[in-house]
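Sequence of Toxin of toxin-antitoxin system (Paracoccus yeei).
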Amino acid sequence: MPQASRPGCAAPMTAELTGGVRLSPKAEADLEDIWRFGAAKWSPARADQYLDGLLAVFDLLLVMPGIARERTEFTPPVRIHPAGSHLVIYRTDTDHLHILRVLGGRQDWQRLLEAIE
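Predicted 3D structure, token representation.
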């Protein structure tokens, strides 16, 4: 059975990555900031739930890395997938999902992406 893919996607939507998730130091800091904000605004339990939701999106992206189109306007190209009120910015290689940033949808994420190594 052929794998699903979309025009403009280099990777098939269902080409599972077996190497797991790798977080950049900035992505780790983003997740810590997201949790701290949620814990202060709502509660630690609610912050835990939101973070669990973000981690579930990472799992989805491992199974379907091509679900988001490649954004070639950035150098190097990235993929951007919504997760709650945040955007997961990632890249893939042959077997890993590299989470570069997890940014708020209201942040100036285009400017922040210009600073990605």
